[in-house]
Amino acid sequence: MTTNVTAVGFEIEQKQSEMIEKKLKRIGYAEDLIIDLILKVKFDKSYVFDITVNFRWGAQAHVSGEDFDFAAALNKVMDVLDNKIKKEKDKVQEK
Predict the structure, then answer these.
(1) Rounded Cα gap, residues 58 and 60, in angstroms
(2) Taking 90 as the threshold, does the pLDDT of residue 7 lie above it?
(3) 60 CB contacts (<8 Å, ≥6 apart)?
(4) What is the 3-state secondary structure (H, E, C) of the chain?
(5) Could you report the per-residue pLDDT of 70-95, keeping only the tens digit for each?
């Protein structure tokens, strides 16, 4: 799985980068199912996370989360992403 993290409107600090890496380990179970994960973080009064995931079977998932706190926004988007990956994985296993 290739991970691409981009910040728009601010510079990602070392602590924030480590937090992102730690949270991405949460979806480590799906590493072999994902080709790449593109994470964009925008800051304009609040943090907005947009994640696009490209799966091996050609499907694509897009999730986003927003909060005034960096960690809270990251947690929100990771919860949604985790659910999305599980649903996609279940769909493929049914076929």
Answers:
(1) 7
(2) yes
(3) 52, 53, 54
(4) CEEEEEEECCCCCHHHHHHHHHHHHHHHHHCCCEEEEEEEEEEECEEEEEEEEEECCCCEEEEEEEECCHHHHHHHHHHHHHHHHHHHHHHHHHC
(5) 999 999 999 999 999 999 999 888 86
Residue with tokens 């799985």: 1
**pLDDT bracket for residue 62 (50, 70, 90):** very high
Predicted pLDDT of residue 94? 81
Whether the CA torsion 85, 86, 89, 95 is positive or negative: it is negative
Give pTM, 2 decimals.
Answer: 0.92
